[in-house]
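stuck on this fold:
=====
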Amino acid sequence: MVAFSCILGRAGPLEAWFIVFVGTVGYELNRNLLTKYGFDGPGSFHIFIYGGFLGLVASILLKIREPETQRHPNYTANKFSSTVALLGTIIIWVFFPLLSMDPAFEGAPEGFTVYTGPINTALGLGAATLTSFSISALINGKLQIRDIIYGPVAGGIAVATASVYIVEPVYAFAIGSFGALVQVFIMNLIEKRVANHNNIFSTVSFSLFGVMGILGACFAAMCNAIVRGNSEGFTYV
């Protein structure tokens, strides 16, 4: 679904089959490699980076086949679809913490519990929501639905895998805010300018999943290094 979002509205049954078949096989291979050599329960690596880049490749292939995309009637938004998307955003407050609710894993810091990840993820989501509201209002002079939908999702992806290593709430706040900040800036300062002079050009799916997944991987490595350094009374086992 992450990959398919990159070509949503411009894809037919053949593209859907391609994503399902190729995407599922590649996903399982990638997930098993990560399970064997690392830890990525919340999915910044094996869900979002993989899905974002798979979607990017699929969208490029579709663009080569069909250069003119502006006439697609399904590639539009209206008040109803925006409202549904806004309601769907609420679900991430349940979905992302559940992704982070993992039992103690090999190499878990002393004091780690099944709630460590969910609590930090919720804190990151809250910070991302506040940031996306604030930055959207500052840039546009009013709230944009796109910003308040995608901002919290971006913050959730950025903080997901790092959440199990976070030893101080301030890190969760900072990561969630940074993810939302980057996503809102990309949509408002890059995408809008390019889209005004080109056919359909959307950075949402790739930046939201691919770029935020990479940020999530970087933040996870950073927080893991902090834990290894015996920070704030946590001891790496």
About this structure: Helices lie at 13-37, 44-65, 79-99, 116-140, 145-160, 169-195, 204-228.
